[in-house]
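The aim of this short unit is practical: by the end, you should be able to scan a pair of folded records and say something sensible about each. We start with the first protein, listed as its amino acid sequence and then its structure tokens.
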Amino acid sequence: MVESYNEMASITGATRSHYRRFDDWLKCQTEDVLHHKRAEADLAFRRVGITFAVYGNEAGTERLIPFDLIPRIIPAHEWHTLQTGLRQRVEALNKFIHDVYHDQNILRAGVIPADQVLKNAQYRPEMQGVDVPGDIYSHIAGVDVVRAGTGDDGVFYVLEDNLRVPSGVSYMLENRKMMMRLFPELFARNRIAPVEHYPDLLLDSLRAVAPIGVDDPTVVVMTPGIYNSAYFEHAFLAQQMGIELVEGQDLFVEDNLVYMRTTNGPKRVDVIYRRIDDDFLDPLAFRADSTLGVPGLLSVYRAGRVTLANAIGTGVADDKSIYPFVPDMIEFYLGEKPILNNVPTYQCRRPDDLAYTLDNLGELVVKEVHGAGGYGMLIGPASTKAEIEAFRQRLIAKPDGYIAQPTLALSACPTFVEAGIAPRHIDLRPFVLSSGKGVTMVPGGLTRVALTEGSLVVNSSQGGGTKDTWVLEK
């Protein structure tokens, strides 16, 4: 069996050129030193409170996301290709969302079946005809990218687009801070592109999409509260941007404006970076039982007197049933060929694709179209016959709820595990910011690593860890 692409070493075992300086340093480190440094990192993360809530975990809901000491390194030319492809993709996705809620040209042209969009659970008819600043709907996108292939033939693919409330950027920032603290000498030896300015870029992007006529906008981060799995990130980003962290109960609507309760009285809010799903934003418009949202928020939003980032209804573009059509969107809206490829995808709503999937369940990865976090999926090669047969019945009962993809040989990166340094599979989530001023991002993103040997599931909720991501400057 040919091994998957190794980020650090070629098929002959030679260290790839962009890893050579790091490899020279690593060879001088003992396992005792690395164990000590990892313990130091764990202690620091625990003191700061960098935890992740795992719902349904009997051992306790709060835990550290394991941090690996060995970075994922990307050379400048590879990052240039990734960055260009991500900008292209997010630009097309924003145009698609605008089109869906306005003229629906892509549906009229038959590029995407209308029913697949208009009957999608993430389509929000309340957004039809609503104009948003700069026609930007997904202000913050987390696009999951993998390198797949064998030997020295590794190709980048987009695995999924996260356009609603993508998380993980705080771990990207804290991982960099931790590596600089533990190994300052590495940053003297290597020209590593900075990421610490991300909060400034984010705040600039949010301020740039303020309602028309607002020159000095008040921006807030809106959180569901301390029990949310990403609460640390909500608080972290608010603190880094120097803005208020609020819950729904801290806001109210009056005279078709949104206000924040403060010790000095009500203060108008112009831009809300919301980390709450659509359903819970406004109990008058969506779920009446929501205690997390702000009654009347939708009416203010529709009137253009407050900006929500990301916009209501962005989920219609990151649903896994829409994912296969993103390359078509790029050609339709931009007149360009996609720079980054999709993973080949079988749409189980199609009879032929369903038949193929059912015949090959043991070799495929099957995902719920609304699933997230590694839940609701089948990894055929890693599943028992009983698990495959149970999943087969779910698939037959609701084929339009699933897509299937070949099991990719995800690239591997050396990782410091209990047995020493060993390859583990990884992905990458760059964070792409959009505003009326254009599309920007910091070099790199969050590298997630499947810590279990042979596992392809990198999600933090499924026991994955994280690494610092270095993009080398020329």
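Turning to the second protein, read its sequence before its tokens, just as you did above.
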Amino acid sequence: MHHYDEMHTADHAVRAHYAGYAQWLEQQPPSALQAKREEAELIFRRVGITFAVYGDDAGTERLIPFDMIPRIIPSDEWRHLEAGLKQRVTALNHFLHDIYHDQDILRAGKVPPDQVLDNAQYRPQMHGVTLPQQVYAHIAGVDVVRAESAEGKGEFYVLEDNLRVPSGVSYMLENRRMMMRLFPNLFARHAVAPVAHYPDLLLEKLRDVAPPALNEPTVVVLTPGMYNSAYFEHAFLAQQMGVELVEGQDLYVENDFVYMRTTQGPQRVDVIYRRVDDDFLDPLAFRPESTLGCPGLMQAYRAGNVNLANAIGTGVADDKSIYPYVPDMIRFYLGQEPLLSNVPTHLCREPESLRYVLDHLPELVVKEVHGAGGYGMLVGPAASKAEIADFAEKIEIHPERYIAQPTLALSTCPILVEAGIAPRHIDLRPFVLSGKSVSLVPGGLTRVALGEGSLVVNSSQGGGTKDTWVLER
């Protein structure tokens, strides 16, 4: 399957936006690059930039492999991508407000009502709750891939919308910090747009959505605790924003207001950037056995005395069975044509699509509609006959639980491997922030499938990361 090469044209010429970097790379002795790679690993390990892998018998934490060859995006491509991402997240926020209020899009028949109202991520408790700025997804991590079009150009596609508790931004920031430390001369030679202001931008957006009439809102980051796979990121973002990192036991509710226990006494909390799933936020409203949340939080939230980022109930909009309708949301709410395309998607709950999927499993990627992290999926071209037969049985029993998509030839970017430099498949997760306006820092987290020919970029499945450079000119 032919794929788009980010660095080279079809006739192996270096693309214009990579020219300066490629020239520098050719001049680097392999031993010098290897030494830099070892230095990066040592620093990452010393700082504690790790990722917990559930069910990993080898240990609870490991480093996410870091590649030193940046993914470079020219300014004109970024402007198009940025506009498309802002458009998409704006429409998704309209959709979330609508389904918890007037449900115009359901009555108009643009999205099947049962797909929303019977969705496991739909929260009836949110119906009629009006949020500041009408923002539900304050932080969205949108997974974007590039595939070669019929004309030989690289075209961006949105693969997934992550609106619940999207992770990975700390690796974007630390990758940039590492590259600037290892190769300061490269940043002097290239006009690379900065990303270091992300924590300031995030704090600004969180303050934007504080309950009304607050001049100096108190923001906290709520973590499930140190055993969570993304705990490093929770602590990192709290530290970078200059706010408290709290667990559920540090909070309590009194008279429908949320307070934080401090050594100076109780302090009111106005905005909670929560990295805890809906079900565990409040044992009085959701799972009674949860010890991760704060009893009474939902009541304070409904009363408008505290705001949560992201909002409870955002998961219905990043469900893979809702994903195919996002282009229609853009047309319905914004009156615009989508700037970024979806990947063509078959909903297995539809009989005609189900027949097609079962007949073409060896060619397709099949995903669970509630799945994440690369789990619960079948990559047809890489699967054995036995795996395909087993998955077909699962789909036939519960077709509503699955979607299928063509196997995209994800674009490749060079990475440093033991034998030298070789292409590997990549995706991109930009982080879109919504408050009084919608903003994003230039770039995002580029994830890399480290195995030759592999299309699985997820960190939990052994993928790596690299720095993403957006050129300012």
